[in-house]
Amino acid sequence: MKYILVFLVFFSGSQIFSQEESAEVSIDFLKESLGYLASDELAGRRTGSEGIEKAAHYIETVFQKSGLQPYFETYRDSFQVKGKTGYNMVGFKEGNDPKLKDELIVLGAHYDHIGVVDESKIVAGDSIANGANDNAAGTTSILALAKYFADKQTKRSVLFVLFSAEEEGLVGSKHIAKRLKKEEANIYTMLNFEMIGVPLVGQNYSAYLTGFNESNFAETFNNYAGKKVFGFFSKAKDFKLFQRSDNYPFYQEMKIPAQTLCTFDFSNYDYYHHVDDEAELMDYEHMKNLISDIIPGIEGMANSKTKVIQLNSK
């Protein structure tokens, strides 16, 4: 990649990651970020663990160095779950339109995973479910988008949210959706990134969108992007995936278009909640291409004069 890299010693001591002095999506950053988040050092990022605290610190560092501001008092939105403290990580990029900047677009992904597995799921002595595809890939994508959009001019404001305790039952996203509703935040739409580390095979679109028929999201987004980024996947409806990821609390609380994009179709990756869900199995060229394809769609949503994306009438 043709980027000047500034190498920084990360807070954990020996961990090093590179911060590109470029707004473009970089495979180097994707590899470094995902590689760290899915490393054994973070021990599967279970909510309340030392590993997820390291992930939260890393996310704060990327937000801060990108120039994003905290939306709340700090980057952390804390909550309690099963006697533990969880943190949603929230970065804010203010829009530049005097009126439209009060409307928020939420881009999100969960950064927690299941941690260390029980004895029955250990493979060849490996007990750490690293969660590379689920969902260090989605988390890294949000961080890449945060870096890209931090210094871009958009009419609407953007929240970059990394949820914790998704694996505990969408606890983090339920908490922040209720908080934002209570604070009367004007959320236009929400797009959630889930398991995008491997490409779909044999499809004429880049990712499927859950709740496809709930809104005109896919059609509008594809028009903005100038290509068929999002498509319909029948198993998403069969398995009720719309209700099973962090988009759903936003839909429930606010009745807004809130949907998840995914490229895991239950046949193209064998390691869901498995100790072999490792960073080296991710397709980084695919991730870069997908994120690059998604950027024009986000720009379209952030700069349209009116709220074009709407829920479909029942």
Description:
There is one protein chain. Helix 1 (27-37) crosses helix 3, helix 2 packs parallel to helix 3 and helix 5 packs across helix 8 (284-303). This protein has a single domain, classed as 3-Layer(aba) Sandwich (Aminopeptidase), CATH 3.40.630.10. Strands 3, 4, 5, 6, 9, 10, 11, 12 and 13 form a nine-stranded mixed sheet that branches. Strands 1-2 form a two-stranded antiparallel ribbon. A two-stranded antiparallel sheet has the order 7-8. Strand 1 (5-9) and strand 2 form a beta hairpin. The radius of gyration is 18 Å and the shape is globular. By secondary structure, the chain is of the alpha/beta class. It has helices at 27-37, 50-66, 132-149, 171-182, 217-225, 234-238, 248-254, 284-303; strands at residues 5-9, 16-20, 69-70, 76-81, 84-93, 103-110, 115-116, 128-129, 157-163, 186-193, 207-209, 230-231, 258-262. It has eight helices and 13 strands.
Secondary structure blueprint with pairings:
Elements: E1 5-9, E2 16-20, H1 27-37, H2 50-66, E3 69-70, E4 76-81, E5 84-93, E6 103-110, E7 115-116, E8 128-129, H3 132-149, E9 157-163, H4 171-182, E10 186-193, E11 207-209, H5 217-225, E12 230-231, H6 234-238, H7 248-254, E13 258-262, H8 284-303
Parallel strand pairs: 6-9, 6-10, 10-13, 11-12
Antiparallel strand pairs: 1-2, 3-5, 4-5, 5-9, 7-8, 11-13
